[in-house]
Amino acid sequence: MTMRSTTLRPGVFLLSGAAFLHGLQLLHAEETLLDPIVLEAESDDTLVQDGYVAKRDRDGTKIDTPIVKIPQAVSIVPQDQIEDQKPRTLNDALGYTASANPYSYGFDTRYDAFFLRGFQAYYNGMFRDALRQYNGPSAWFKTEPYGIEGVTILKGPASSLYGVSGPGGIVNVITKRPKDTPYREVEILMGEHDRYQAAFDASGPVTDDGRILYRFTALGRDSDTDLKGYPDDKRYVAPAVTFKPSKDTRLTILGEYSESFTGGTAAFYNPAYGQVSDLYEGDPAWNDFDQEQGRIGYEFEHRFNSVLTLRQNLRYSAVDADLEYSGHYSVGADQPLERYWGHYTEDMENFIADNMMQVEFNVGEVGNTAIAGIEYSWSRYDAHSGLSYVSVDDIRNAPVPYFGGQDMDQLGLYLHNQMEWNNFTLFTSGRYDWVDTTSTAADRSETKQKDDAFSGRIGLSYQTPWGIVPYANYSTSFSPNIGFVYDDVTSDVTHVARPTIATQKEIGVKYEIPGANAVVSAALFDIDQEDGVVFDASTGINKQRQLDLNSQGFEIEAQASLAEGFDLIASYTYLRMKIEKGAEGTEGNELSATPNHIFALWGNYQFHESELRGVGVGAGLRFAGESFGDDLNSFKNDARTFLDAALSYDFGYRDPRLEGVKLQINARNLLDSQDAICSAGYCYRDEGRALTASLRYRF
Predict the structure, then answer these.
(1) CA 255 to chain centre
(2) In angstroms, rounded to a whole number, what is the distance separating the alpha carbons of residues 571 and 547?
(3) Residue 433: phi, psi to the nearest 5?
(4) Cα angle for residues 26, 31, 32 (degrees, 5° grid)
(5) What is the β-pairing status of strands 126-128 and 169-175?
(6) Residue 406: partners with Cβ closer than 8 Å, 6 or more residues away
(7) Where are the extended beta strands (E) located within 441-493?
(8) How far apart are CA 601 and CA 603, in angstroms?
(9) Which residues lie below 8 Å from residue 177, measured CB to CB, with a gap of 6+?
(10) 452 vs 189, 236, 413, 536, 670, CA distance in Å?
(11) Nearest Cα to 96, choosing from 617, 599, 618?
(12) pLDDT digits 0-9 by tens, 145-174
């Protein structure tokens, strides 16, 4: 592939801004009395949204429930926020969410690596359409933000309904689904580092009676980055069809196929422990990361009567990853640095089927909505890994030795009941899981392991006449871990990772502001985890190990979409992650790369009147406080601040003939700060400023 070395100059954006202002002047004479008709991308199928505020969701309880009544902290990244901020990755989309930390590994578009309430959630907390999305050691499913209509973040242990998952919670990505009204969108985007992207999204009824609906989403991107020889290319298609033979029966088929091509190395050379240089580790001659992924599945629902409903959700998915990486190492104080090259390949397959029965009934004055379900899943991965200290040609021509693999089969049975009486809502959930794991080492020897556990949740909320809803819950989680761990990272002795278990105590309050489309929520939480898996890079190579942790914190979050055209997101998290049991010298310390304070604020204003009508202005601030650079707490990471901005113009406000046409400019990390962030002793660098301009036509 021929790589481009030119970049999009700031002058292009200055010219674009001048043309933008000139266009406003030309359109000033066009007076319209009514706001343009707004076509919404979201389907409001499993997640009901109103601007930046989510109203109902199925993923907190597997039952369509008002979010304010769920006695557990729930955050939503809505469709409108995604459109306003133009995130390029799932990590970008989570940047304004309370208790979410996507800042621990600096710039790295290869993976979506984020933490919830201090715990890693990228292996055991990723869900898609309420089904777990297994990630292998390196074959991770990549989320394309253009292909989703929202993200639900359920905080704290959720195994009582969702089985294998982590202590910090789950991130459920919601695929764009067919709409029952015609909807079409075409968008082109360009940005710095020769970033060119085109996307298309169409939906609506296939038949006149509306019984068959479709959606087809596609995207293509060619892009360089500010790292030499590190592209960010993608091809993405996602078809979906809904069949509604009757008002009580619904079948939605969801598919995806995508290819991504990025750099294989995103790191900078660490000249000493806890230090990072400006020397990029990647070798342009050996720096390709090819990933191919696909999924196919369906959601089926049939309502027999007002009492009984049956559902089945099923999906098969697979990822193939081929990673070329490189780095530098020192052979002596006065000697030039030498290079090494690595080649890693991995194939990952998953299957999951969730079958549930929902029953609605009354016992006296108590209304009950109960579900009972059985879920089965399996996952398989095989990996090959090779290393050369000779040359690029040597690693390119050498066979890639077998590195290991794992097969995991899981069966879970669960029960959940929501009871409502006099503004009280009581949730009780219980689930039992059996997991069989066969792990294969590099020498093809096998280790078999059987794990089983009960997970539960009990939560109570009360809706006051003033819109204030206090709540409390107690929940547990259970997660067998994929892969091998090191008890001593200085040796090569490994064993199959032990299951991670955790318990949470949480109290909180949610407030729907009367007369306004706005919600404020706050929570206090205390989570104890045993045998959590973390990366340790103190030897210069990432190795997994296990430790016991305690997470205590407070979070507050607000979302609002006001009639005046103002949308707002605000969040603050205080978090203290304590190592209860870990490597020698770390007990009682704080976990590395975990800030005590994270704050985010985003506002977007759309002018509906005056000479500026049609103009949209957005601005955001993200702040990650100080944290320790290693688990020994021997040095600290500085606090980091990022500024984001957006400027848009909706041409339909001035000229009805241009209804649906919107120009938008987005700036991420406007001040171009590229600070260091160290985790487990290894240091990374943040990405600098990223500017994009997009033109969208929605009709």
Answers:
(1) 19
(2) 29
(3) -120, 140
(4) 130
(5) parallel
(6) 379, 380, 381, 437, 438, 439, 440, 482, 483
(7) 446-462, 468-479, 484-485
(8) 7
(9) 43, 45, 46, 149, 215, 240, 242, 252, 254
(10) 49, 38, 12, 28, 49
(11) 599
(12) 999 999 999 999 999 999 989 899 999 999
pLDDT at 563: 86
- In this predicted structure, the answer to whether residue 27 has a pLDDT above a threshold of 60 is no
Report angle CA 154, 159, 164 to the nearest 5 degrees.
110
Angstrom distance (rounded) from CA 203 to CA 699: 11
Please identify, in words, the CATH class of the domain defined by 10-698: mainly beta
pLDDT 10s digits, 468-507? 999 999 999 998 876 677 777 667 777 777 788 999 999 9
What phi and psi, each to the nearest 5 degrees, are found at residue 658? -105, 20
Whole-number pLDDT of residue 13: 37
Q: Residue 84 carries which DSSP code?
A: H
In single-letter form, the type of residue at position 305 comes to: N
Tokens (6 digits) for 185: 């969108």
The dihedral over CA atoms of 131, 132, 136, 138, expressed in degrees to the nearest 10, equals 80
Q: How does pLDDT run across 133-148, given as a tens digit for each residue? A: 988 889 999 999 999 9
What are residue 637's DSSP bridge partners? Answer: 627
Residue appearing with tokens 């960010």: 232
| Residue-level length of the chain | 699
User: What's the pTM value of the predicted model, to 2 decimals?
Assistant: 0.91
Token readout for 315 is 């999906």
Q: Which amino acid is at 52?
A: Y
Q: What is the CA radius of gyration of the chain?
A: 25
**DSSP assignment of 521-547:** EEEEEEEEEEEEEEEE-TTSS-EEEEE
SS (H, E, C) 184-235: EEEEEEEECCCEEEEEEEEEEECCCCCCEEEEEEEEEEECCCCCCCCCEEEE
In the chain, domain spans:
10-698
Q: Is the dihedral of CA 81, 82, 86, 90 positive or negative?
A: positive
